[in-house]
Specification:
MFS transporter, single chain, transmembrane, transmembrane helix, 75% helix, membrane, Growth Hormone, Chain: A, mainly alpha
Length: 438
């Protein structure tokens, strides 16, 4: 069965049930915790850079350590989750990152922080492959972009919660306590996941009507599709290209925005909260709106390919004005431009993630997401190094914002050229790039 399998029912009647949305809520919680863990360092960066005496390149190296581990982890995370299933695979992933988050409290210098970030990256590499595979198992195709947008909004919620809580925790109990707090959150989620989650074909709380709407099929966790086989297909390259070109922009927003606001507008640790919260509230809205837009266009009669790429184009255009953020000259104008860009990115991301389940069968989805995540992490490593060097040499954020504003349109062009109709991959075809010749 290909990734575009259709549900047995055609419309979700009023009595169909909503258990699948409870599962989506658990994915939302996991992604939120993941981004709280990631954002703690970003929020504390101006403070820690002064306290520890880091240079711009030192901070860049610490950020790159996370992204390198994230890339390495994605080499195997998707395959492990496809092999063992989302219940066990997700629990292992979050267990590792829970311990890694708490280990930051023991760091005393660049090497210690880099080691802790490396371990965190290895654990968090499993989050998106597991979440996307869960969505593919629990939702029919027409609902996947919305479900993905909802759980992916956790990346923004986490980025909102972090500047609310981290400065307060650091002020009262020290910066180490902020890292310990996030580790406890992760461990709590693992316990709830293992106690409550089962695959849809094994979930006794799932009603017959909702099961029919989902079109539940056994996910076949024993089937593993090697990366080399997946990379024969242009669909995998399209997904990887979209991630490689646009994930680095989100990494920049996540890890460098507090430093940008501190450097350009003199904001201290406690003053960073309101601008960051406003920016990531915009991102949260964009994540859900991007998924909703694709579903709305499908309901209006658009083809899946046209609706998906139409939503991606709208999101890409929303990012373009961020080119002017470095020259805004006013804090809240800069916040508005960056907020619009983060909204565009998250709407884009909801649709890009859904491409994997649109074009690949369920048993290969986590591996495909792993390939894309690896490409995105490699791109993130590159941009971290470039940003560190640019700031060390010039102190200017202008070139990076120019890159951010153009990346999404370039990525959409790459997707269109590779898979103009978003054709499902035929994994049993031994020929490279057999489908969808323009």
């Amino acid at each position: 069965m290909q990734g575009n399998d259709q549900p047995a029912a055609t419309t979700p009647g009023p009595g169909i049930g909503r258990y699948r949305w409870r599962v989506c809520a658990m994915l939302l919680a996991a992604t939120t915790i993941s981004y709280i863990d990631r954002q703690v360092l970003g929020v504390l960066a101006p403070f820690l850079q002064t306290k520890m005496g880091w240079s711009e390149l030192d901070y860049s190296s610490i950020v790159t350590a996370f992204q390198a581990a994230y890339a390495i982890g994605l080499l195997g995370a998707g395959a492990v989750i496809d092999r063992f299933g989302t219940r066990i695979g997700y629990a292992l992933s979050i267990g590792v990152w829970s311990l890694a988050a708490m280990s930051h409290a023991l760091a005393t210098g660049v090497l210690g922080f880099a080691a802790a970030r490396f371990a965190l990256g290895l654990g968090e590499a499993g989050n998106f492959p597991a979440a996307i595979k869960t969505v593919a198992e629990w939702f029919p195709q027409r609902e996947r972009a919305l479900a993905t947008g909802i759980f992916n909004s956790g990346s923004n919620i986490g980025a909102i919660v972090a500047p609310l809580l981290v400065p307060v925790i650091a002020a009262y109990w020290g910066w180490q306590a902020a890292f310990l707090f996030t580790g406890v959150l992760s461990a709590s989620w693992v316990t709830a996941w293992l106690l409550r989650y089962r695959a849809p074909d094994r979930q006794p709380r799932l009603g017959a009507a909702e099961r029919a709407w989902i079109g539940t099929q056994p996910p076949g966790p024993s089937v593993r599709v090697p990366w080399l086989h997946l990379l024969r297909h242009r669909q995998a390259w399209a997904f990887a290209a979209a991630k490689f070109l646009t994930d680095p922009i989100w990494w920049f927003f996540l890890f460098w925005l507090p430093k940008f606001l501190h450097a350009e507008y003199g904001l201290d640790l406690l003053q960073l909260g309101p601008p960051l919260i406003a920016i990531f509230l915009c991102a949260d809205a964009g994540s859900i709106a991007g998924g909703w837009l694709a579903g709305r266009l499908i309901r209006r009669g658009w083809s899946h390919a046209r609706a998906r790429k139409g939503a991606m184009l709208a999101c890409a255009l929303a990012v373009v004005p961020v080119m002017f953020a470095a020259k805004a000259g006013n804090l809240w104008l800069a916040v508005a431009l960056v907020g619009l860009a983060t909204a565009g990115h998250q709407g884009w991301s909801a649709n890009v993630f859904t491409l994997a389940s649109d074009m690949f069968p369920r048993h290969a989805v986590a591996s495909v997401v792993g390939i894309g995540g690896f490409a995105g992490a490699v791109g993130g490593m590159l941009i971290s190094t470039v940003v560190g060097l640019l700031l060390e040499l010039t102190g200017s954020y202008t070139p990076v914002f120019l890159l951010a504003g153009s990346a999404y349109l370039v990525a959409l062009l790459a997707v269109h050229l590779l898979v103009p109709q978003l054709q499902p991959a035929r994994l049993d075809d031994p020929q490279p790039f057999p489908e969808g010749n323009p």
